Write a sequence for this structure.
């Protein structure tokens, strides 16, 4: 049996596609190398950091731990699928205006974990946000602005925190 | 070294019968892979030895949770997110519901399965202490038929178990006779999420007329595999919960557990924390049912 000749079909960001790939190839590598969807990042490569988070069949998964054969028939959403017709997703707007992104490596994973959380819990508490994003590591922001960005996205209130601070004075 | 995807064969037969036939036709040749949260990590590090993998992901006959009057049966392919989504698990098996929330992150819980956690057999497995405290039974299946054994006799050594080469773990059966028991579960790790346990302990006990009538104490990360602490249980059974019993139980625990030094902790720390967890549980028991 050939190890490198499987045709695997799935729907990605609303588009059906077929890839010819070894079945054990990581979904992460198929996204980046075969489909050129490089928004999904590799951090640790062992399911600890969440940089490669995508949504598969309505669940958040680490794409570095998914052998692509197990994505056969799946519906997958990556960070490229968040904006619709050039309009940013509320999470993207909030991260932009509230300082939720710095170097950017963790950002796609944070956005996907946030999107998963808001899809099942549109108005999470800060504790629920912390749990929802607990598998996503950021080495720049200290996390608070990320958590605040998710809160802001839920409220669709994107005014930058500096403006809010000025208002408060 | 990074693993090479082309070095591995992988098939997804799609049904339980087809997987069992594959295993029966070539016993020991195929390694089952469910959500991949363990094997794909080994693969990434270039240390995944098995060349032939058979996928269990998406097989409907393995992914179920069925509630009966005397037990809840959980298919080996149920994920920890599946467990957390169920109100009956939260109500009837609170220790298991809590342990499910310990598994890595949401993304890990979406993929990690109950069967994978047990068959992988990590000494630190998060679901194991709760299953042992609830006296879970497990069902193994092959083309030869199925058999049920106590989960407490499943692990036989470090990452070793009683599965025959042609067998799969099919389901975990959780008896529902612990409603009146006092329950305890605590994990000690480096942080609240994404931490592998330094020590974890689960316990269930029934106190009647001031003495311990029934008790199960189980732990992870204190031996080569998750296990009940039988000497601790013997020291407590039939005893009133007083200072003397607690001291005897503490000594029994320190004599019984065999933790190791590793990257996550030291044997000495693990012993001391385990003894403190036992004491915490016994103090809760004593507060609820003081000795006469």
């Amino acid at each position: 049996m050939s190890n490198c000749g499987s045709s695997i079909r799935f729907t990605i960001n609303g588009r059906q596609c077929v890839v010819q790939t070894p079945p054990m190839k990581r979904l992460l590598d198929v996204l980046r190398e075969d489909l050129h969807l490089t928004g999904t990042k590799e951090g640790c490569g062992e399911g600890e950091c969440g940089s490669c988070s995508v949504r598969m069949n309505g669940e958040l998964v680490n794409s570095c731990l998914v052998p692509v054969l197990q994505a056969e028939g799946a519906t997958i959403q990556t960070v490229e699928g968040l904006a619709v017709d050039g309009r940013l997703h509320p999470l993207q707007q909030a991260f932009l205006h509230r300082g939720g992104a710095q170097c950017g490596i963790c950002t796609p994973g944070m956005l996907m974990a946030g999107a998963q959380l808001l899809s099942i819990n549109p108005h999470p508490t800060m504790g629920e946000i912390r749990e929802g994003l607990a598998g996503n590591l950021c080495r720049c922001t200290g996390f608070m602005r990320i958590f605040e960005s998710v809160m802001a996205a839920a409220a669709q209130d994107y005014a930058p925190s500096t403006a809010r601070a000025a208002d408060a004075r | 070294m990074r693993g090479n995807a082309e070095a591995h064969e992988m098939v997804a037969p799609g049904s339980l019968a087809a997987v069992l036939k594959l295993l029966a036709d070539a016993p020991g040749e195929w390694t089952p892979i469910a959500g991949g949260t363990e094997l794909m990590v080994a693969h990434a590090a270039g240390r995944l030895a098995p060349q032939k993998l058979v996928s269990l992901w998406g097989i409907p006959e393995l992914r179920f949770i069925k509630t009966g009057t005397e037990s809840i049966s959980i298919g080996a392919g149920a994920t920890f997110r599946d467990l957390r989504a169920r109100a009956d698990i939260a109500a009837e098996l609170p220790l298991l519901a809590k342990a499910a929330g310990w598994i890595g992150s949401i993304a890990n819980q979406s993929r990690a399965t109950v069967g994978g956690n047990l068959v992988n057999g990590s000494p630190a497995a998060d679901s194991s202490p709760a299953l042992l405290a609830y006296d879970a039974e497990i069902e193994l299946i092959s083309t030869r038929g199925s058999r049920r054994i106590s989960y407490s006799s499943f692990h036989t050594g470090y990452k070793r178990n009683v599965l025959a080469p042609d067998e799969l773990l099919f389901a975990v059966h959780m008896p529902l006779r612990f409603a009146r028991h006092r329950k305890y579960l605590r994990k000690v790790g480096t942080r609240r999420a994404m931490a592998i346990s330094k020590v974890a302990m689960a316990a269930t006990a029934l106190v009647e007329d001031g003495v311990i009538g029934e008790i199960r104490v189980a732990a992870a990360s204190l031996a080569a595999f998750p296990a009940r602490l039988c000497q601790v249980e013997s020291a407590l059974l039939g005893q009133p919960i007083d200072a003397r019993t607690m001291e005897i139980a503490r000594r029994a625990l320190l004599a019984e557990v065999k933790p190791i030094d590793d990257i996550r902790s030291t044997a000495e720390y693990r012993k001391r924390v385990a003894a403190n967890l036992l004491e915490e549980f016994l103090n809760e028991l004593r507060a609820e049912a003081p000795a006469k």
User: Anything to note?
Assistant: The CA atoms of residues 28 and 63 of chain A lie 5 Å apart. Chain A has a mean pLDDT of 92.
